[in-house]
Amino acid sequence: MNFDDTPEEAAFRAKAREWVQANAPKEYEAELSQASLGRITLKKGDMVEVGKAWQKKKFDAGWACLSWPKEYGGRGATPIEKVIWQQEEGVYGKLTQPFQIGEGMCGPTVMAFGSEEDKRRRLPKLASGEEIWCQLFSEPSAGSDVAGLRTRAERDGDGWIINGQKIWTSGAHYSNYGLLFARTDPDAPKHKGLTMFFLDMKSPGVEVRPIKQASGMQEFNEVYFTDVRIPDSQRLGNVGDGWNVSLTTLMNERMSIGSRLATGFPEIFAFCSDFVTEHGAALDDRAVRAKLADWAVKSSGLKYTAYRSLSALSRGERPGPENSIGKLVAGTMVQDIATFAMDLQGAAGALTGAADAEVGGRFQTMWIGAPGTRIAGGTDEILRNIIAERVLGLPGDIRVDKNVPFNKIPTKGR
Ligand SMILES: Cc1cc2nc3c(=O)[nH]c(=O)nc-3n(C[C@H](O)[C@H](O)[C@H](O)COP(=O)(O)OP(=O)(O)OC[C@H]3O[C@@H](n4cnc5c(N)ncnc54)[C@H](O)[C@@H]3O)c2cc1C
Asked: Do 239 and 169 belong to one domain?
């Protein structure tokens, strides 16, 4: 791959840069630059409202959901153009957080399996930020093993009645629509009795209960369904084919997480360049330098692995299981870096949120958020299983419930 812009890419970059310079909400620049890795709150404004305004501005100018087709609200851009845009959007890209699940996962699933009418009615509103979508997959006993989900969808005339519970649903408290994965046939083996739907989050019988996190934030929720009725027209894909539909969502999830992998390396490098311990400048310490060198090598590896996927995408190939490497390496790296920075800060490393915490407590916030990164979108162990089985060709995980009807799988009295 050639890493320099072609003349066309350079022209695209100049256009993007000029537009961002002229239109970005500069009043939030400092705050967004300082925001630690992970989730963001704004002191001077509501993150969702500021994000919606930025998304709408981008949409009106043709800079929203870049890789989506134009007729559904996108720009029909190439994967390389999307990366160039992300580079030029810079810190303002952090404002797109509430729309990432919609753009990266729900939108592509509706595009692949929705009716033409739904695509034209729903997707432009998603792209413009007018409507936010969430992903209703995980349940208390179905996370890594999402095919073990128990939320029921039962036929009722020309619609379906939904009963059950989801958990860890990011953004459900401000979402308009949700992509709902439900069980329609408990007599079939677990992967075969599932169906995908989308639903209006304001439907009667939907109850969203926010979960308070260790960081003090409230980003995800429990969602309960009691006799929620949805029309059959909101089914995505065939009845019983939900597993296949979910693979589109999950593949896009991994790609969309992969495209915005943060490692914490620029932050730790900047911190060590300024920080002075009782023994002198941190950067003069050989142990610190050895750590930084190690992380520099890892971040280059991640960058070029991501470029490799990008090259594959631009050749029209589907990104494969090797993409799991990125999140696995970056997730542990963020946690290691945050731990190291807090160690280096000595007693001050125990402070968080206080005015006298080093660099506004950004490494403490990073440290609290890091385990979530290592769980969301596939835990470390699941990613290792994927790499072992599908990249290295090692023997598969033991699956005792394969081909067993779902309602015959033994459970502990549930
Ligand atoms: C920040 C965040 C945001 C999220 N947002 C959403 C969302 O918007 N929508 C949504 O649907 N879900 C969301 N999730 C849920 C997420 O998808 C699940 O937490 C994840 O899939 C893990 O499932 P679990 O929590 O049930 O853990 P479990 O699957 O119960 O895993 C528990 C432990 O067992 C290990 N384990 C499980 N199976 C295996 C195996 N076969 N081999 C080896 N080890 C194994 C796991 O690695 C883990 O350490 C979010 C999670 C987080 C942290």
From this structure: yes
Look over the chain and give the mean of its residue pLDDT values, rounded to a whole number: 90
Residue 266 and residue 371 in one domain: yes
Ligand 1 pocket check for 359: Cβ under 6 Å: no
How far is Cα 321 from Cα 327, in angstroms, rounded to an integer? Answer: 12
Which of these, 272, 281, 381, 292, lies nearest to 333 by C-alpha position? 292
Phi, psi torsion values for 4, nearest 5 degrees: -85, 150
CATH number at residue 30: 1.10.540.10
In tens, the pLDDT along 360-397 reads 788 888 898 899 989 998 999 999 999 999 899 999 88
For position 397, what pLDDT does the model report? Answer: 83
3-state secondary structure of 409: coil
Kindly state the tokens that stand for 189: 């083996």
Residue 377 or residue 113, greater confidence = 113
264: Cβ–Cβ under 8 A, 6 or more apart, which residues?
37, 333, 334, 337, 338, 366
CA 241–ligand 1 middle distance (angstroms): 22
Domain residues for 351? Answer: 261-378
pTM score of the predicted model: 0.93
CATH number of the domain enclosing 217:
2.40.110.10
Percentage of the chain surpassing pLDDT 70?
94
Q: Is 203 contained in some domain? A: yes
Q: What are phi and psi of 143, to 5 degrees?
A: -115, -85
Q: Which of 214, 245, 276 is the last residue of a domain?
A: 245
Atom nearest to 134 CA in ligand 1: 8
Q: Biggest alpha carbon distance in the chain?
A: 75
Q: What is the whole-number distance in angstroms between the Cα of residue 137 and the centre of ligand 1?
A: 11
Number of residues written out for the chain: 414
Q: Is 108 exposed, middle or buried (0-12, 13-18, 19+ CB in 10 A)?
A: buried
pLDDT of 39 > 80? The answer is no
139 and 116 in a single domain? The answer is: no
Closest by CA to 129, choosing from 66, 57, 62, 61, is 57
